[in-house]
Amino acid sequence: TDGVMPFDLDSQTATIIGSQVGMVVSYHLSLSDAQNDTNPVSSPFSNNPLNSATQIFVRMENGVSGCIDITDFWVIVHPLPLQYPFDDFELCDDNADGYMIFDLNYMTPIILNGQVGVSLSYHNSLFEAQNNQAPITTPIQNTIANGQDEIFYHMENTVTGCDVYDSFFIKVNEIPFTIPVDDFGVCDDLVHDGFTEVYLDEMDDAIIAGQPGTSVYYYLTLADAQSGINALPIPYTNAANPQTIYYSLVDDSTGCAAYGSFEMEVLASMNIYLPTPLAICDPDSDGFHLFNLHLK
Length: 296
What we know:
Layout: E1 6-7, H1 13-17, E2 23-28, H2 31-36, E3 45-46, E4 53-62, E5 68-76, E6 89-92, E7 101-102, H3 108-112, E8 118-123, H4 126-130, E9 140-141, E10 148-157, E11 163-173, E12 184-187, E13 197-198, H5 204-208, E14 214-219, H6 222-227, E15 236-237, E16 243-251, E17 257-267
């Protein structure tokens, strides 16, 4: 991809001479060099990287008569289609069977990355990709449950025919499991209005159920949970009492998520009343006396 290629100029000699005999052929970078038989170019010839196309002048001389003829042709370096880094194609297992349907067309704009005049096909083997044979018809299903299949691609410039090939993996990732969780009850604050700050993350352990590398996020609607938007802050003040809270349990490495809900209720606090003072006369004037606090 540096724009330089070695050209076997001698491979052109037989074509240039044809059926003639006794001809001497040399190659030059200018017409004057060809006319004066100076500065012949040796083969293989590497072009200047600043010039994708180089004009080569050919001097053919009759070895007996000394008569000459001059012609020319071009050596051209065509760029390869560009290959950019990209991630493997991963889907979350929506039915826990280890298999998913992959639409490889999803990967096409990612691999092409805006290039035009470039064709792209997918193949099951490196040999097929190299030779542009047996393209895969998409969509396809992975063959290894909860594993990864290697997909090869062939990318070709539709004008020059220059091509490249490589591969990526299609992967099916498991989603975290969910178990039923108890409803979440919290005591009302001193205002006694049924609304209070709630630390929803107190439910994390029950929802995670020992699954490492997972995180919990809380939402007002299932749609928000599935879209991963409008996560509730911690602490959160309830908007209704009781109130349904939705959550997503997310695998931190794959982003695959499971969803659930529970009821949150702010429990009424007990009413406490201010008693009247408990007074008693001091019979021995020492400032001390026994009080029966149960009277209050």
